[in-house]
Amino acid sequence: MNGRNRNKPCHCGSGQKYKKCHILIEQHLESGQVKKLEIHELQKIFNETLYKEICVASDLNTSKQCTAKIINAHTLTKSLSLEKIATNGQVYAFKNKDLFSFFKGNGVITLKKIGIRTASTFKGFCSYHDDYLFSSIEKENFELSEKQVLALFYRSFALEYYKKKSIVDNARKSFEPLLKNFNLYNIDHGSKTLIANLKRAKLDFEDMIRINEEIKRFWNIKNKTNIQTYALKVANGIPFVCTGLFAIYKDIKGNIIQDIYDYDLPNLEYMSLNIFYSKDGAGWLVLNWLKEKNSINELFVEQLKEFSIEEQINILGNLMILYTENAYFSVDYVDNMDVHKKENIEQTFNNTLRGIFDSLTKDSFEIKIEKAEVKF
């Protein structure tokens, strides 16, 4: 670009001016004067640019404003769900402590034990809104009431909103420090990856803004019927719990039902999955989605209904691995699992990081159900 165009928005879509964004890449490619970052330097950049403290519910029409304190809010109830599957205060999760662990494992993430005190927490709510929004599912027995369904869906949404906002807000900051300090090949290759990631992050966050506006609309008019539900209630234990909001890529038959990699697709349909325990000890597997965006999600649920309860739980377990990062497993269950089955579950998770989605009917979980109810 010439001098005048240097002040225009960069062609990569970062939102920054060209002179403060992609021109840095081009200048470094021309100069060849680069220094490769050490892993500890990379870790410092990641720590400084990701996941700030916010209250996602700050713009909801509630009786009080946010309190000053942002807390470590649990996306899964510690005293109910996490303690139910824990052994000695620990559960299994797909986690890497830091970039050192990631590189040491050659980019492969395995199931590791973590403490339930910090499991499933994020800095996404102030103390007032955390109590106000979720007391119906924290302090009351879960009965699938409209208020509880809204709280359940909103908690899944809030976590995804928080992650996507953090990513899109800080993706721009990644360009200058990262691209100035890689070797020549990685600048060229890495910049393309960053651009693709930034575009995807912007589109994903725009989806979250749209969902947030819809939630605010029916929250403010006290209309909770805009959320559709399909749920399984089981009497005996489920060895995993999770919460997540996602857009389904492939249906149960393996067909692409919405191309999440298509940047030109106007709006994706999102669904939440919550697997948890209620106060009476029952296990719940709950799918929710917005009524106005339901064609793809309803197709998925209709396919799900064709399977037995045990098969549905296996499918929902695979759905959890493929689409949610906030999943936790019973220590006893994993430790007693066939080693090949455990490796297959880990492979399924790692495949998603490479854009490969294994079959939802893959035999991952064998769970015998004594009594179950289907609710919708």
How would you summarize what this structure contains?
This is SEC-C domain-containing protein. By secondary structure, the protein is α+β, with helices and mostly antiparallel strands.
Main beta sheet strand tally, sense and closure: 6 strands, antiparallel
The geometry reads as: globular
* Beta strands, count: 10
Question: How many independent structural domains?
Answer: 2
Structural class: alpha+beta
Mean of all residue-level pLDDT scores: 80
Protein name: SEC-C domain-containing protein
Pfam families: SEC-C
Organism: Acinetobacter faecalis
Structural features, described:
This is SEC-C domain-containing protein. Pfam families: SEC-C. InterPro entries: SEC_C_motif. It comes from Acinetobacter faecalis. The chain has 376 residues and is an alpha+beta fold. It has 2 domains: 5-76 and 121-220, no CATH class; 227-375, no CATH class. 43% of the residues lie in helices and 16% in strands. The protein is built from 11 helices and 10 strands. It has helices at 22-31, 39-49, 78-85, 99-104, 127-138, 146-179, 184-220, 295-304, 309-323, 331-335, 339-352, and strands spanning 70-74, 90-94, 111-115, 121-126, 227-234, 240-247, 270-277, 283-290, 327-329, 372-375. It has a 6-stranded antiparallel beta sheet, sandwiched between helices. A two-stranded antiparallel sheet has the order 1-4. The protein starts with 21 loop residues before the first helix and ends with a strand. The model has no long low-confidence stretch (mean pLDDT 80).
